[in-house]
Amino acid sequence: MSQEYHIVGADTNETSCNEDGKLTRLNIDSISKRSGQHDRLPPEVALLQNLEEIVLEEFQFQTITDVVLPELTQLKELHTLRVGSKTLTGTIPQDMVETLTTLQHLVSFEILASRLTGLIPTDLFLLTNLRSFSLISSFFNEEIEDWNQNRMVGLTGSLPTEMFRMSHLEHFSLTANATGRLLPEIANWKNLTFLRVFANLEGEVPTNLGELTKLTHLAFAGCNFSSSTIPTELGQLSHLEYLNLYETQMQGSLPSELARLQHLTLFVVHSNSITGTIPSGLWSLSSVKNLDLSNTQLHGTIPDQIGTMSNLGNLKISHGAFRGSIPFAMLGSTVRLRHLLLTDSFFSGVGLPTEVGLLTGLLTLDLSNNGYLSGIIPSEIGNCTMLSSIHLQGNNFTGGIPTALGLLGSRLRELDVSNNTNLVGPIPSELGMLLWLNHLVLHSTSLTGSVPEEVCSLKAAEGAWLKTIVIDCSKVTCHCNCTCG
């Protein structure tokens, strides 16, 4: 006699059956959206004897035992268990690990939960058949600007040396307050393609990491590798596409061998103690889309060579010792450039040549706090109609605010030209065309006159976006509740 089981919340588009009509893959969305209660995986799921995959995301689970039930030991064919929940709290109990160890076919285990606390059971790392292991915060975000938000995960403990016996691993991802070291035994992970560790690891980065030649994604963050340099052997990772070394306290210089990474799309060394100049070969990696050299002791100039980085979308060099002129003529060749942040350094010369108008896809332009950038703000900036943010404060720009900025009305939300004492003239009425403007910062300049009525109307209108206008009240008059800077 056949039996039918109905799982509330099952997504039939993501639920699979084998050719005998028996369920093999179960993807369930939030039960609580329908029941109004917190979620718990029904124990009846253990009756699905042929189940191979369980994917549970966007649930209102309260504890890990709402998910990994003792009944799962009956699912002898289960090879994938993925759980994602922003509400999951508590610890990872040892009996849950014991349940997992009975699943002989389990090769993929992923828990995405930002509020777990307590110790990481070391036996989790003894699931030697695993090909994919992830224990990460659901808020984890590798966007360059968002790293400080990734410190929410509360799991602690020391990573056992036995973890390096997981010789079948292809994917390893861990974000936690865990301690430990990377040992040379990491070379046992010969099939590894993805390695991401956001934890309080210390010591040195093993040089034989270069033996993991299948790696495409390598990311360390928040680690204390202050006794380590970037191994030259990383240049052997010929398939590497992603290299993120954010805030790892690494020392030394950038190895020239990194220029061999011809498939590299992201390179981040933000917040390290790296010194020296950028190897010339790195400026010729045409595959790179994201480059962040900020908060380091690197120095030198940006060479014209950067024009060969035809796929460059994000360039961030801030809080460093870079100097010299900004090669806008060459940057104009990088037609995919979206975010240009060259701040808090020593760049000098003409800050915005007319070639800036070639960057028509630019979303963010931030040249703030270099001190030595000079020249006028050219009208060609009006060609950059995708711009949402312009920050030019803390420089030596001259002339007036170009009326062409009004052409950016459909996108621009932030405009800051403060602390440019040689910026003169009136505030153009064309700024009133910037319908989406949130912040207009004009203080510590030599601008005179009054805030145009067209600009004030942006603040007065019902549902207006404009929240802040900051001016020199001794030089500029305002009739719409401006802030004196």
Describe it.
The protein has 485 residues and is mostly beta strands. 5% of the residues lie in helices and 28% in strands. The protein contains 4 helices and 33 strands. The protein has a 21-stranded mixed sheet that branches. A 6-stranded parallel sheet has the order 15-17-19-21-23-25, with no helix packed on it. The radius of gyration is 27 Å and the shape is globular. The termini are far apart. The relative contact order is 0.05.
How far is the N terminus from the C terminus?
Answer: 80 Å
Largest sheet: 21 strands, mixed
In round numbers, the mean pLDDT is 88
Radius of gyration: 27 Å
Total strand segments: 33
Count of helical regions: 4
What structural class should be given to the helix and strand makeup?
mainly beta
Tag the structure with descriptive keywords.
485 residues; mainly beta; 21-stranded mixed beta sheet; six-stranded parallel beta sheet; 33 strands; 28% strand; globular; disordered N terminus; Leu-rich_rpt; membrane; kinase activity; signal; receptor
